[in-house]
Amino acid sequence: MTNQNDIFIGGWSPFTTLDEQASGIFRNAVRQTGILGDFYRPIAFATQLVSGINYCFFCNIERPFPNNPMAAAFVSIFKPLGGESPKITHIQPFLPAVNLTTEGEEF
Q: Is residue 102 in a domain?
């Protein structure tokens, strides 16, 4: 977990590997939201202290159908102060960049 002394209000922490606390917040938010279909596997996260804590999770996406393209996403979660449940606020999926070069060509 990011040391609370290293966080300043409104600023984002660096991304770090998942710990038990962040993993629990992610699971709780996914359970509360009831996401169906894609399975999001969090890899790393960053936090932002506001009137609660914003979490940005970098996730691999596993899709439940054959021949699916590999994908990843940023999953944003807000954890209010006072013990309220965390909630997913945004999911930004993205696909790997397509190789636009042709043989012998470089950018």
A: no
